């Protein structure tokens, strides 16, 4: 019997800041930034939101978009690089808040921006082995950039949760392929507030090499070529990188556009490719084939070949879509933004 | 708030778990173990509130104790849940958005953290409905 996605749910904070406002403070040219990054605005968590509250809201939306009884959930894994506690799993708060406790296993995952897709693979394994009926894999982040760092234009908050199972699938996962190496492109040491990155080094040997290798490996495994897919989603640290990697691999703009959420959302780290996939599910017809590849610094990529099932038409409207979550925005000025981020 | 006291209230705080008297149909939040109307005749059962309600009255807090100072100004309101009980809760919106009679729904937020070292208290607040589906 096939394994796949029984439900999905997303959460995006309602506050945003525009690139112009950040550029004004640092004296940068906003047009330059916008055309360079293809990011126009980014989400900002409210003062009382963090990775745990965002993970809970995403998980609640995933449960709403399903007929799953939370007590049937046997595993909850939360991938993030901004867990609120150094010791005390975010997954325990999520499990309690969706009513899945106490008979389940849970843990927090860490692998920069691909911890959420690693969590999906762990759930797939447990479902396949018959250890659990359903597992929830979550990517959630409220990542920070040092004020004035180029990353400040893109670091955003958001989360996505996927219920993995064998029953009532809205999408089947045909196969997955990962590519991992020891590459120091981006890191944050314990106790430090902001990450450091290797500048230009983050591009070719990190993002591009890992995504290209995992995606090619997956297509060989399932015997597919780029034109066999209707949609493709890549990790989205900005708008430029995913478009470029798509072109390198032979995918078209039409395939990537529906899942490209970064221009009006920013980089949501562990949630980035997962929110992109959700945006595809929000509009995809049954039978559509989707390829998604995440990327996490350090470095690794997980690639998935997915086929959308008929069930999606019945479940889609039970929880808010990505586009609905991006509406109703309130814009912050830099002073309020700094307060939201706890910088003042 | 001390960790053990916070921990005991997790079901009520996270998931609006209250009680219902099966004898007279009255709902209670926070949960009560006996029904004051039916007394010994009352049969009490745990129940999860839908998290939908209406603002009965509110106040805007502009100056607060240390634990809440960073959140000021914020809105504190009495909300009447659809099932009947009223509760005092923070409303997640700007002070100029709040109005009496506004429909609200529950959200999961940080309530307070005593210090950078201390436990983080999570729980339920309310936000104006329709924010997501306008
Ligand atoms: Zn009674």
Averaging pLDDT over every residue of chain B, what do you get?
90
* Strand neighbour order, sheet with most strands of chain B: 6-5-4-7-8
State which percent range the strand residues of chain B make up.
35-45%
Largest sheet of chain B: 5 strands, antiparallel
Tell me the strand percentage band of chain A: 15-25%
Shape of chain A: globular
CATH topology of the largest domain in chain A: Peroxisomal Thiolase, Chain A, domain 1
The SS-based structural class of chain A is: alpha/beta
For the secondary structure, the number of strands of chain A is 14
Discrete helix count of chain A: 12
Order of strands across the biggest sheet of chain A? 5-4-6-7-1-8-13-12-11
Question: Termini of chain B, distance in Å?
Answer: 37 Å
CATH superfamily of the largest domain in chain A: Thiolase/Chalcone synthase
Could you tell me the radius of gyration of chain B in angstroms?
Answer: 16 Å
The poorly predicted ranges of chain A are: none
Oligomeric state of shown chains:
heterodimer
Contiguous uncertain segments of 5+ residues of chain B:
none
Average pLDDT rating of chain A: 94
Rg from alpha-carbon coordinates of chain A: 18 Å
What fraction, in percent, of the residue positions of chain B are helical? 10-25%
Give an overview of the whole structure.
The complex is a heterodimer of chains A (344) and B (134). Chain A is built from twelve helices and 14 strands. With 344 residues, chain A is α/β, with parallel strands linked by helices. Chain A folds into two domains: 4-170 and 316-340, Thiolase/Chalcone synthase (Peroxisomal Thiolase, Chain A, domain 1); 175-312, Peroxisomal Thiolase, Chain A, domain 1 (3-Layer(aba) Sandwich), CATH 3.40.47. In chain A, helix 1 (19-26) packs across helix 2 and helix 6 (203-222) packs across helix 7 (240-249). The longest helix of chain A is centred in the middle third of the chain and has 20 residues, at 203-222. Chain A is globular. Chain B has 134 residues and is mainly beta. Chain B has a domain at 51-134: OB fold (Dihydrolipoamide Acetyltransferase, E2P), CATH 2.40.50. Chain B is 12% helix and 42% strand. Chain B is built from three helices and eight strands. In chain B, strands 6-5-4-7-8 form a five-stranded antiparallel sheet. A three-stranded antiparallel sheet of chain B has the order 2-1-3. The longest helix of chain B has 6 residues, at 3-8. The model of chain B has no long low-confidence stretch (mean pLDDT 90). The chains are: A alpha/beta (344), B mainly beta (134). The structure holds zinc ion.
């Amino acid at each position: 019997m096939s394994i796949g996605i029984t439900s999905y749910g997303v959460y995006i904070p309602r506050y945003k800041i525009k690139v112009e406002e950040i550029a004004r403070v640092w004296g940068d040219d906003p047009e330059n930034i916008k055309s360079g990054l293809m990011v126009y605005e980014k989400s900002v968590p409210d003062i009382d939101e963090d990775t745990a509250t965002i993970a809970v809201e995403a998980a609640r939306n995933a449960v709403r978009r399903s007929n799953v009884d939370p007590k049937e959930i046997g595993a909850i894994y939360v991938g993030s690089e901004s867990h609120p506690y150094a010791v005390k799993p975010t997954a325990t708060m999520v499990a309690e808040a969706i009513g899945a406790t106490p008979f389940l296993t849970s843990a927090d995952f860490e692998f920069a921006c691909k911890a959420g897709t690693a969590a999906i693979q762990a759930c797939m394994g447990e479902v396949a082995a018959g250890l659990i009926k359903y597992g929830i894999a979550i990517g959630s982040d409220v990542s920070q950039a040092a004020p004035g760092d180029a990353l400040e234009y893109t670091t955003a908050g958001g989360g996505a949760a996927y219920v993995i199972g064998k029953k009532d699938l809205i999408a089947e996962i045909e196969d997955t392929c990962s590519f991992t190496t020891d590459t120091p492109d981006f890191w944050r040491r314990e106790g430090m507030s902001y990450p450091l990155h290797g500048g230009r080094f983050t591009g070719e040997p990190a993002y591009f090499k890992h995504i290209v290798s995992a995606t090619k490996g997956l297509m060989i495994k399932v015997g597919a070529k780029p034109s066999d897919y209707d949609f493709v989603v890549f990790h989205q640290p900005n708008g430029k990188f995913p478009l470029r990697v798509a072109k390198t691999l032979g995918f078209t703009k039409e395939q990537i556009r529906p899942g490209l959420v970064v221009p009006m959302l920013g980089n949501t780290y562990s949630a980035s490719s997962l929110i992109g996939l959700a945006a595809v599910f929000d509009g995809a017809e049954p039978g559509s084939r989707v390829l998604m590849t995440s990327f996490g610094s350090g470095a690794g990529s997980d690639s998935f070949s997915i086929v959308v099932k008929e069930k999606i038409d019945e479940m889609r409207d039970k929880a808010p879509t990505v586009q609905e979550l991006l509406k109703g925005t309130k814009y912050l000025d830099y002073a309020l933004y700094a307060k939201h981020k706890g910088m003042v | 708030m001390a960790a053990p006291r916070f921990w005991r209230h997790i079901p009520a705080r996270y998931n609006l778990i209250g009680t219902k008297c099966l004898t007279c149909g009255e709902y209670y939040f926070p949960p009560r173990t006996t029904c004051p109307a039916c007394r010994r005749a009352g049969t009490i059962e745990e129940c999860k509130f839908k998290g939908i309600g209406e603002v009965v009255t509110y106040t805007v807090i502009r100056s607060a104790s240390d634990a809440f100072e960073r959140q000021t100004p914020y809105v504190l309101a009495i909300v009447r849940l659809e099932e009947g009980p009223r509760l005092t809760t923070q409303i997640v919106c700007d002070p100029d958005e709040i109005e009496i009679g506004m429909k609200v729904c529950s959200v999961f937020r940080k309530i307070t953290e005593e210090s950078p070292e201390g436990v983080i208290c999570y729980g339920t607040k309310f936000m104006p409905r329709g924010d997501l589906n306008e």
